[in-house]
Amino acid sequence: MKHFRNIHDVNDIPDLVMKGVRLSKDIQAKIGQGKTLGLIFLNSSLRTKMSTQKAAMNLGMSCLLVEATSGWPLEFEDGVVMNADRPEHIKEAAAVLSQYCDILGLRAFPSLTDQQKDYQDYVFNQFAKYATVPVISLESAIYHPLQALADMITIEQHKTIAKPKIVLSWAPHIKALPQAVSNSFVQWSRAMNHDLTIACPEGYDLSPEIVGDTPIIHDQRTAFRDADFVYVKNWSSFEKYGQVLSKDKSWMISQENLSVTNSAKVMHCLPVRRNVVIADDVMDSDQALMIPQAANREISAQLILQEILSEL
Ligand code: CP
């Protein structure tokens, strides 16, 4: 694997997921010895920041971290007169970071105001264009592949039948959130040939290109019937780009909402706002898989780093 920008960098998704299921965290083969991973976070993170560093340590790599507040504000547009408040161009920044690091990772959230630019993954791709070493996505404007890989591993570990019914459900939130986690979950779940349904209110259908022929049901109770897994996530509207069209509390995931499921396991990438997105009675139940999911972020990061290191 040369890069890990999105699902298209992976040849065989089911094979990669099963490698993740088999992977041990305390790997002894220090394939990363003498190599350096540079992680650039333009947005907040807890899990990605920690799990990716831990994965690199497992492989014997050194880690360098740049956070938005500690670097110079970056200009991403080519050919501009840089006379405003961004003193460093991504062209130099990515090239310079490539001198210090063998692999680079970037987190760059969307604007949620310019759909065309966000869906070109403009910021992430400008970074990848000017980096001269392999790059991995730590969540871009439209994809979060390390999360999706961890989610697929978690489903494999917890499923009790060969083809469980999985529902990706929108849930309310107080502000507009990106579609990246949901987009990647749908892409990877389709690549795993899951029995997937999307439940969301009218106006919240994800990009048709991402969704393909996945059934979309605008009634949560109908979608939840006999579900084995419910993956919960808020996202802002794709159609009315970046807007919050609903804060309907009846979509919050509670034991009452789950009563029609097959005692569904509940997943969420975290962070989650308790009693806004998911109720305490679900978060604190045996059905909640958020902590094993977060643990698998270390596995997914280690697996991807190993794949890239093996080709350096
Ligand atoms: N799920 C996830 O990516 O968490 P962080 O935003 O804390 O990294």
CATH domain class of the largest domain? Alpha Beta
**Proportion of residues in β-strands:** 5-15%
Largest sheet: 5 strands, parallel
Number of strands: 11
Rg over CA atoms: 19 Å
CATH superfamily of the largest domain: Aspartate/ornithine carbamoyltransferase
CATH architecture of the largest domain: 3-Layer(aba) Sandwich
Number of self-contained structural domains: 2
Which segments are poorly predicted (pLDDT under 50) over 5 or more consecutive residues? none
Fraction in helix? 25-40%
- Give the overall silhouette: globular
Would you list the SSEs in sequence order as H and E? HEHEEEHEHHEHEHEHEHEHEHH
CATH topological fold name of the largest domain: Rossmann fold
List keywords for this structure.
single chain; 312 residues; alpha/beta; Rossmann fold; 4-stranded parallel beta sheet; 11 strands; globular; binds phosphoric acid mono(formamide)ester
Describe the overall structure.
- The chain is 35% helix and 14% strand.
- It is α/β, with parallel strands linked by helices and 312 residues long.
- It folds into two domains: 7-143 and 297-309, Rossmann fold (3-Layer(aba) Sandwich); 147-293, 3-Layer(aba) Sandwich (Rossmann fold).
- A five-stranded parallel sheet has the order 9-8-7-10-11.
- Helix 7 links the parallel strand 7 (165-170) and strand 8 (195-199).
- Helix 1 (13-22) packs across helix 6.
- The mean pLDDT is 96.
- Bound molecules: phosphoric acid mono(formamide)ester (CP).
- Phosphoric acid mono(formamide)ester binds next to helix 2.
